[in-house]
Amino acid sequence: MAPSSPITIATDLDEAGLQAIGARLASVLRAGDLIFLSGELGAGKTTLARAILEGLGHRGEVPSPTFMLAEPYPDLPLPILHADLYRLSPEAGIEDLGFDQWLESGAVLVEWPERLPASWFPEALRLRLEGAGGPSRRLTWTLPAAWKGRWPELG
Q: What is the mean pLDDT of residues 124-144?
């Protein structure tokens, strides 16, 4: 099923607001979930990913996986793979990152999903952050069918 129309749920999210959204997302995240985090450099993608990981109980450092492409967190109650595709080269095998295997028992967070073919993973929750460099950001959600009803305000 195709994703629904975008829903803007917050227009003034500061860093604390991003952390609160991340904690709420962590509380409803399930095995098989894929979250795409889009936005320009500095928009808050990694901040939101860190907040989700912290919401799941991670207490250590959360480095940006820009150079490694993916950072696994297998010991959380819900195992997470955090991927950053900013430096993904066209000849790189995205299959080698193992998204499908992670989705069997965990969830995957993907920064810079624009590097993937547009038709891949239509079931992903798509979050777009705008407002890099400013004190507040706009967050736009595009909800797939699997996310309907998880948060009352999201339908």
A: 84
